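User: For a benchmark we're assembling, each entry needs the component sequences followed by a predicted structure for the full assembly. Here are entry 17's components. Please fill in the structure.
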Amino acid sequence: MKKFKIIFFLLISSLIYGQDIKGEIIDLTHTFSEESVYWVTAKEFRLEEVANGKTDAGFYYSANNFSTAEHGGTHIDAPIHFAENKHTVDQIPLENLIGIGVKIDVSEKALKNPDYLISLEDLKNWETNNGSIPNNSIVLFETGFGKFYPNAKKYLGTENRGPGAIKELHFPGLSPEAAIWLIENRKIKAVGLDTASIDYGQSTNFATHVALMTQNVPAFENVANLEQLPATGFQVIALPMKIKGGSGAPLRIIAIY
Amino acid sequence: MKKFKIIFFLLISSLIYGQDIKGEIIDLTHTFSEESVYWVTAKEFRLEEVANGKTDAGFYYSANNFSTAEHGGTHIDAPIHFAENKHTVDQIPLENLIGIGVKIDVSEKALKNPDYLISLEDLKNWETNNGSIPNNSIVLFETGFGKFYPNAKKYLGTENRGPGAIKELHFPGLSPEAAIWLIENRKIKAVGLDTASIDYGQSTNFATHVALMTQNVPAFENVANLEQLPATGFQVIALPMKIKGGSGAPLRIIAIY
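Assistant: Structure for entry 17:
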């Protein structure tokens, strides 16, 4: 438990300074179903019906079991996913998952190039227009690929599955250079984007994951509805399933603005 | 997306009227592991390691799969769990899962009687001391049983599993009378408690579930750390995994106060 004052201060100062608070909740989460997008080698989501109907005792009853990889659908990569001895998903401090959000829209470039790498220039252009990324921000990248979800062919670049499909993955991601600049020059809590991985589809060394997670910065992947967010002026609340020792987990992520 | 003004108004009015904002985040969630408490007939949580160590490519990598019943550990019962055609877990409006919290502590009575039913009198006593339960509240009940988690013998009344163990379940719950009074006389968003079920262990007709869920009121079960909350003056944010058509789901629930 730590102090959690930023949200209060932002809201108060928003009112004092007359900034518009629209006060809407936006769900940035895709539903989990058999259509959910998973890494080509990962175990997909399966729901198994246990009960659905009237019981002998007279009341209606519905219940299911499910199985899934930690990393699929809208989920969090905990730092330990790519960095030994760093936070497991249950160890990530809650204050790192709640805070001021900024959205960096690179969709114009990324939709023209499925191998697009979000660059340091993209970050600097955003700051020229919006001011410096605030301390303790959660930084969300809109590549535009969210609109293809759950069409694997368009969203991942391939509808094939298995190890042989890895080389067919084509979707945008955050360049290692931009990730390292964010870590070294801005104080960020977490990053997220509307693709299946914070590293682009053609990555083989996952250098962006390694750079972020070595610094205990988690990543939110397959984030939904980013086109509904403004560039600044919203709060993010990202609450993952609390799996003991988990390298990641299904995530419910919302924005309030 | 709907208007979400209550949290803003509460925070602003708290400042204007000088109420103390402590501004702490409290995690009301138990971790999921093989120790997690599940209904005696439910499929328990299992984590299966997929990778944990240095890859041939040189980077560290950890990943797991898991399987579970929807209803186990800290979870939500969606209305459809006991009420046909009511909200599935993905259909519950987010604004019903975020809002003013109140805590009703019945632990003194419940710890003396594992079959304790939270009564209408308990609600009225709380209101005598704290004022009327505010409109749009999330009502949390502290039975004191949270401190026994995950010891099944103490928490559920039995460490046996399977259909034969159902009659051995002894833990407190909310009486149907109190649930119906809440629905008919107070406008509540959701209820929660620190036992395995909103109906007490000896229930056979699950009348409290039926009463709540017929009115589209969800329930949070196996909630943790309720002893850390005051009676009033906090916000609850309860974000379940967004399972399409789910009758419930693992829940990450926090309080801010």
